[in-house]
TrEMBL record:
It comes from Rotaria sordida. GO terms for biological process: intracellular protein transport; vesicle-mediated transport. GO terms for molecular function: oxidoreductase activity. One of its GO terms (cellular component) is membrane coat. This is Clathrin/coatomer adaptor adaptin-like N-terminal domain-containing protein. Residues 7-298 form the Clathrin/coatomer adaptor adaptin-like N-terminal domain.
Length: 322
């Protein structure tokens, strides 16, 4: 049917069909409303779908969640949010998962205490896909969801047996306020730098990068130095970025030596980010080894690296000519 058929008359008929005695009619009505997307997000439709969240048929409840998800922020009424919170406790795994997805789509507007508590509970669901969807939903809500309970739940999720849960937990922590850079969060992310999965290690680097100087502990710096030698280039260039964001606080001999070695990496993005990191560290990185490495980078095949090396040397110019 799609949006072309989404006239007021059609929508009204579909809303009435949500109350039909025949379960297949109710299912198909939910599916049809899902396909007409945000344009169908009028009060009558929303109220009908909220009622459908309580339907005796599991597929009606699933499709109602999906339809509300498609409507996104336009469906962010108190009734919808309360209905989706209740759906997080549904006996059916797909209803619970679709409820997580719908709350994620609504985003910050859904960041009420009830929603946050519901998603924290969902972090402990027996089904991994619900746990990672809960991580994603909390990440979408960002700083508004940065309560102690959420942070603790996400730190625990960094140790989940499922790789996707650990990955999305890192991603969610990255989106929280940098004020949430507690010892527990930092220690959890440092351990995540050693994860067997490349994406978890990469997202852990990105989360530490977001914390900047506040995350520049000895343990973090050592972890990022090790990440500079990761077998995956994505992890190596993320580690360079993270060290760059920590600035002078990360200007140890070990960091500087690691970044100099990274200037010779086979991956162009690693070399580029190493250059940028050395530029951000500034004069404290103006050792002979760094200066020689940056001079060599002036001949790199990549124009961005040559430009960045030139800028970094400009910052260190006094040391170069002293």
């Amino acid at each position: 049917m799609g949006e072309k058929a989404a006239t007021n008359e059609v929508i009204n008929e579909l809303v009435n069909a949500l109350l039909d005695v025949d379960v297949y009619v109710r299912r198909n009505a939910c599916q049809a409303l899902r396909k007409v997307d945000e344009k169908a997000a009028i009060n009558e439709v929303i109220n009908g779908l909220v009622n459908a969240l309580l339907d005796a048929d599991v597929y009606v409840r699933q499709y109602a969640c999906e339809a509300l998800e498609k409507m996104g922020e336009k469906a962010a009424t108190n009734e919808v949010i309360n209905g989706l919170v209740n759906a997080l406790l549904d006996v059916d795994v797909y209803v619970r998962r679709n409820a997580c997805e719908a709350l994620r789509k609504v985003g910050e507007k859904a960041a009420t205490n009830e929603v946050i508590n519901g998603l924290v509970n969902a972090l402990r669901d027996v089904h991994a896909d619900i746990r990672w969807d809960a991580c994603r939903a909390l990440g979408k809500m960002g700083e508004k969801a940065a309560t102690n309970e959420v942070i603790n739940g996400l730190v625990n999720a960094l140790r989940d047996v499922n790789v996707h849960v650990r990955q999305y937990a890192c991603e969610a922590l990255e989106k929280m306020d940098e004020k949430e850079a507690t010892n527990e969060v930092i220690n959890g992310l440092v351990k995540a730098l050693l994860d067997v999965n490349v994406h978890v290690r990469q997202y852990a680097c990105e989360a530490l990068e977001k914390m900047g100087e506040k995350g520049a502990t000895n343990e973090v710096i050592i972890g990022l130095i090790n990440a500079l030698r990761d077998v995956h280039a994505d992890v190596r260039w993320c580690a360079c970025e993270a060290l760059g964001e920590m600035g002078e606080k990360a200007a140890t001999n070990e960091v500087i030596n690691g970044l100099v070695n990274a200037l010779l990496d086979v991956d162009v993005y690693v070399r580029r980010n190493a250059c940028q990191a050395l530029r951000k560290v500034g004069e404290k990185a103006a050792t002979n080894e760094v200066i020689n490495g940056l001079f060599n980078a002036l001949w790199d095949t990549d124009a961005d690296i040559r430009r960045c090396a030139d800028e970094a040397l400009g910052i260190m110019v006094e040391k170069v000519f002293s």
